[in-house]
Each structure stands twice: as C-alpha cells, then as structure tokens.
Amino acid sequence: MRVVILGVTTGLGARLAESLLGRGMTPVGLVRSAEHTEALKEAGVEPVVLDTHSAELRSTVVRALTGADAVVLAAGTGTGPGSLGAATATASPAALLSGAAERVGVRRFVLVSALLPSAADRAALGNDLPAYLREKANAEQALAERDLDWTVLRPGTLRDAAPTGRILLRSGADPGPEGEIGRADLATTITYTLTAPRTVHRTLAVSTGSCEISTALAGIGT
C-alpha cells in the first residue's frame, strides 16, 4: 500500500512513516524543502518536494498522488489557505489534497484534525488559536464534501510516550477526545484506520484508553 503523507517531518509524521513501514506499506512524504530528502530516504520514505512558490504546485501534488492507495494529512499548525504558497491562497491543503485525490482516483483519505492542542501549541499560537481551530474545522468540511472514502481522526493532546497499543475511541455526530494520546499510538491508529472499513465516512475521537487499537477500530458501529 502506497500512502502519501503531508506532515511527514513532524513528530507524528515520522512515527506514522515508521508504523507504515512496519506493516509493509510505502510512505511517500510531501515536503516543502529539499533539505529533508536525504533523511527521509534513509528512513525509508520516498520524498516529494513541493515548490510552494511555483504555479506547478497542483500538478506536482497530482503526480505524487497518481498510483497511490491512500493520503494522510498529518500536518499540525499552518494548515490554512496560503500555507502551501501562493498557489493555495484560496484553498487549504485539505482542499488541495482531497481535490487531487478525487481527480486521480485515490479514494482513501485520513485527516488528523485537532480539538485539544497541547499547552506548548496553545502558547505558540497565542491569539491565532481560534483561527487554527477554525482551519481544522474547515479542513474537515472540505474533506466531507469530496467523493472519497474519508476518515477524520480527532486526537487528544499529543505527547511523546512509549506506545501502549491501546486507545479510547469515540464516534457519533461530533465526538471529542478525552485527555491525551501518545504520538506512537496515534500513528498506529492511523495505520490501522487505512484498512479498517468501519471507519469510512466517520469522524472519530481518539485518546489513550484500554482497548487494543485494532479491536477498537473493528468494533465501530457494533
């Protein structure tokens, strides 16, 4: 399975790439700077550099997605219109990626959204926090409007912790996470979500819990 990731250079993205590789999948990382390419290659990730100042940005994204099986948007802050350069001045990365996925026939799309930014993120965002949360809500809406097999994951506050392999999963019309979740466990959850049919067209809140990840995902709606 070939999985295109935006946000592969983040703490979550790196763990996601590792998780995908561990299950025999191929991670393809969309990056904004060529300085990341060698490290990504060494980690087993196929890098694709996005020239955010080029009018060819959309074409580059389409080429990167051609032949892929899934897309994961795991980027954190800076996900609103214009965050990938002038070519996206009126569209978010979620709209850009989901539109490209729809165009080339990549149906599976997982969006990592956010309701509980960490204390450090809240401090860094400051007065921009409401705008950041609006961006995430807009990204969810942009994805839901596409003819794709989408899943939205709303994690609890992210932290670095040893993986537990267990989560608390909530579904429903507007689910919210409870507490925290380790980046490693969230990465594993994303990996399993890609092939979990019950997660399609669902918004799921995920945090640390007591249920094995695969069991929690398989039990949705039962």
From TrEMBL:
Domain NAD(P)-binding residues, every copy: 7-197
SUPFAM superfamilies: NAD(P)-binding Rossmann-fold domains
Gene3D superfamilies registered for this protein in UniProt: NAD(P)-binding Rossmann-like Domain (3.40.50.720)
InterPro entries: NAD(P)-bd_dom, NAD(P)-bd_dom_sf
Pfam families for the chain: NAD_binding_10
Protein name, as recorded: NAD-dependent dehydratase
Organism field: Streptomyces minutiscleroticus
